Amino acid sequence: MKIDTADAQILNELQANSRITNRELAQRVGISPSPTLERVKKLEREGVIEKYVTLVNPKAVGFGTFTFVQVTLMRHGQQSILSFIDSVNAMEEVMECYHVTGTADFVLKVTTRDIEAYETFVVQKLTEIPGVQQLHTMVILSTIKHKTQLPIQPTEESK
Length: 159
Known about the structure:
This protein has five helices and four strands. Helix content is 35%, strand content 19%. The chain has 159 residues and is α+β, with helices and mostly antiparallel strands.
């Protein structure tokens, strides 16, 4: 989908505050409310806007340990990969899962309440997945930068 200047402005505003009213969004973008709402609906229909979420402070709700886990599988066939993906999708501790190139097959971002809970997760869940050969864990000491907003710009053809 081509993103014009107004669409880019709408997306940037919604990424910064998805609870903004349509009226305020229209004012910030510089078009009237009705066309603004139609643009937002089109962006939703086209799959550009996937969903609206609330970002929760992990420490405020008791999650203090984050790790990145590199996972290497014994086999790389389609069935092994799909089985691993199904298993990981069922684990609430896994916040993100990436199929990657390099020395590992997958990189997981995992959250637990503390390091003891992480150990339990590894021993009772992650290493129990059939086909997991090796794990390499990196404990996150502190987060220097974490952003959720993509730097949306109009596509070249729409400028």
